[in-house]
């Protein structure tokens, strides 16, 4: 399965097998990938990329893991831009450690408040 890497600092060749760097306009690159048949696209560990994709209305589904730990800081997943995007809960699971995995589907276009 090919892996696509979005990065503002990496350059080709990447150090991971079967990996391709998404260069240039990230919105255009993701639109091209979404237009291809095949599997879902996943973002792991990049709140900045998620924020960008949300702002471009390119997110169809969010899978959030909520851990039962308060850390008092960290990177924000959502920007403070007054954007309003309706989401619909389509699945939720509680893990053996008490974490909640919630899956939300996009339910309408991104709107500014």
UniProtKB/TrEMBL annotation:
Domain annotation Bacterial bifunctional deaminase-reductase C-terminal: ranges: 25-99
Domain of life: Bacteria
GO MF, one example: 5-amino-6-(5-phosphoribosylamino)uracil reductase activity
An example Gene Ontology biological process: riboflavin biosynthetic process
InterPro entries the record matches: DHFR-like_dom_sf (IPR024072), RibDG_C (IPR002734), Riboflavin_Biosynth_HTPR (IPR050765)
Protein name, as recorded: Bacterial bifunctional deaminase-reductase C-terminal domain-containing protein
Species for this entry: Micromonospora sonchi
């Amino acid at each position: 399965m090919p892996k696509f890497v979005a990065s503002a600092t990496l350059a080709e060749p990447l150090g991971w097998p079967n990996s391709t760097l998404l260069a240039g306009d990230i919105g255009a690159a993701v639109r091209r990938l979404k237009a291809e048949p095949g599997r879902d696209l996943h973002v792991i560990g990049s709140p900045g990329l998620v924020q960008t994709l949300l702002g471009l209305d390119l997110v169809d589904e969010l899978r959030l893991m909520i851990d039962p730990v308060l850390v008092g800081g960290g990177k924000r997943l959502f920007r403070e831009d007054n954007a309003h995007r309706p989401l619909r809960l389509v699945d939720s699971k509680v893990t053996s450690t008490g974490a909640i995995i919630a899956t939300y589907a996009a339910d309408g276009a991104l709107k500014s408040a």
